Amino acid sequence: MRPSTLLWAFASGVLGASWIAPGAVWYDTSGAKIDAHGGGVFKRGDTFYWIGHAAANQTPMLYSSPDLINWTNLGAQASSVTGMWRPKIAKPNGSFWLFGQQDRYVLSLKSANFVGGYSQSAKVYIPPNSYSYSDTGMFYDDSTQTYYLLTSADHNIVQVNRINSDGTLGDKVSDLRAGAYEAPGIVKADGVYFLIVSGKTGWRSNPNKVFWATSINGPWTGGSDIAPAAENTYGSQNTFELTVAGSQKTTYVYMGDAWDSKGGASSNYVWAPMNINAGAHTVTIDYHSMWKVDVKTGVVSYPSTLKRYEAEHAVLSGRTVVKECGGCVSKRSVHGVGDASEVTFHNVTGTGSRQWLSFHYQVNNPEVGEAHIYVNDEPAINISSLNSRAGYHTSTPVQLTLKAGDVNTITFGATGAEGFEVSVDGIELFEEDE
Ligand SMILES: *[C@@H]1O[C@H](CO)[C@@H](O)[C@H](O)[C@H]1NC(C)=O
Ligand SMILES: *[C@@H]1O[C@H](CO)[C@@H](O)[C@H](O)[C@H]1NC(C)=O
Ligand SMILES: *[C@@H]1O[C@H](CO)[C@@H](O)[C@H](O)[C@H]1NC(C)=O
Ligand SMILES: *[C@@H]1O[C@H](CO)[C@@H](O)[C@H](O)[C@H]1NC(C)=O
Fold first, then answer.
1. In a shared domain, residues 108 and 234
2. Would residue 217 count as lying in a domain?
3. Is residue 86 domain-shared with residue 204, that is, in the same domain?
4. How far apart are CA 191 and CA 279, in angstroms?
5. What domain range includes position 258?
6. pTM to 2 decimals?
């Protein structure tokens, strides 16, 4: 693509929200950070609705989107309800229902409208055992029957309950008694049901597992990892699985939360396509740092590079040194990046509005230091505040607002404990294919 075409694409303003980037801060159409944690996605007509809890007070928040990328905030849904974790939409029938967890009870809310006006319908322990329940999920089986997924807080049982046709919580149909699991979600592919759960490690991520059954009535067997164990589910915890049944392909989407250390406002989201092999009973996350699914065809695509700024061609200071790098595009990268040892990229192209760019760098241990950037000499921003995956992946997409034109200066530095090492490969801008 020629630079003039590039500027046209930037000027049209579509670039800012064109990709799903796991772990990055995602913004709604008003420019605010999306605040819908422990959530789920429900399709109604051609529109996707994302319900989740607000980080500050766990009130249910609803967003809508035509494409799973561009989300409009429809606001808080139940003005008087707070402390309701992991809300999910139940399949509506006459009236509309949200289910979630409050004080380890199952809380159900009801409204006469799909958007807004929800208030408490019931708050119940599950009979007959009076177990207390924590993380909850929802599964829409072929759009005919909805199931509510519960995790007992005290008995390590994940169970599947029918939602009755009147919207109330119905009987248990199956359960999983295989260890300490929570955060359940179910996806069905080629007639096989897959139950995805996380371990119980608080806000810290762990290797999430998949169990399978040929009936929603169980029995559930298995327990394999959905990602390489060392990745801890790419720093996330399961919340929901979405099926995008397109004209060419059905794409199954893993939706997880990248919690901060307290499940607070800086928590982000990790969404990725899943590879499902129904015959082998395996589900694995197909991780990409940026991707999207065409919701009409179901086809997944990835951005192609428009422009790269190589670190070894940038202005280097302090103890930085250029070294060979087998995995780098230009086969070279800049090592020794630190506080007074920086890489300054000049003339970076900006749109004047929010845009994606990706930092390509590696650290030896993301637990003991931070990479940061200065954009046009503004105060330092830790890259981890723009993307929870910072330091854990060689490509870290972030959204920044740069000045329009080839006029931006981005300086890359790092701060860390003794022995923290950062090497910078470059910065990448992406081609828009709208
Ligand atoms: C986002 O979606 C709305 C409709 O929901 C549309 O009006 C708007 O143009 C979209 N914006 C982008 C950047 O795609
Ligand atoms: C909807 O709920 C009503 C009870 O409120 C019930 O009679 C009816 O069968 C339900 N319809 C469906 C499609 O589940
Ligand atoms: C930035 O671009 C200007 C012209 O647009 C050029 O004169 C200058 O040398 C460039 N700076 C760097 C560091 O490449
Ligand atoms: C960035 O990270 C460093 C090192 O972890 C920390 O000391 C500093 O407070 C952080 N800065 C901001 C603005 O959060």
1. yes
2. yes
3. yes
4. 10
5. 37-301
6. 0.93
For the residues 163-182, what does the mean pLDDT come to? 93
Residues 38-60 have pLDDT tens digits of: 999 999 999 999 999 999 999 99
Q: And the tokens for 266?
A: 């800086």
Distance CA 168, CA 90 (A): 10
Alpha carbon of 382 to ligand 4 centroid (Å): 6
- Whether residues 297 and 329 share a domain: the answer is no
Cβ–ligand 4 distance for 415 under 6 Å, the answer: yes
Strand order in the sheet with 181-189: 181-189, 192-199, 209-213, 221-225
CA of 197 to the centre of ligand 4 (A): 33
CA neighbours within 13 Å on the CB side: how many for 264? Answer: 5
Please choose from 367, 382, 386 the residue to mutate so as to test ligand 4's pocket, defined by most ligand atoms within 8 A of CB: 382
Which of 249, 269, 301 is a domain's end point? Answer: 301
Q: Which ligand is nearest to the CA of 91?
A: 2
Confidence of residue 10 (pLDDT cuts 50, 70, 90): very low
Q: Which ligand is nearest to the CA of 31?
A: 1
Is the CB of 353 inside a 6 Å radius of any atom of ligand 1? no
**12 pLDDT more than 90:** no
Q: What is the pLDDT of residue 143?
A: 67
Q: 110 pLDDT exceeds 60?
A: yes
Ligand 1 pocket member 385 (CB < 6 A):
no
Domain co-membership, 276 together with 375: no
Mean pLDDT of the chain: 93
Measured by CA distance, the residue closest to atom 8 of ligand 1 is: 70
Give the per-residue pLDDT at 155: 87
Question: Is the Cβ–Cβ distance between 70 and 17 less than 8 Å?
Answer: yes
| Beta pairing partners, 411 | 344, 374
| Domain end point (choices 268, 301, 334) | 301
Contact 391, 367 (CB under 8 A): no
- Residue-wise pLDDT for 56-106, tens only, equals 999 999 999 999 999 999 999 998 899 999 999 997 777 899 999 999 899
CB of 93 closer than 6 A to ligand 2? yes
Kindly state whether residue 16 falls inside one of the protein's structural domains: no
CA 165 to ligand 2 center in whole angstroms: 5
The CATH code of the domain that includes 247 is 2.115.10.20
Atom of ligand 1 nearest to the CA of 72: 5
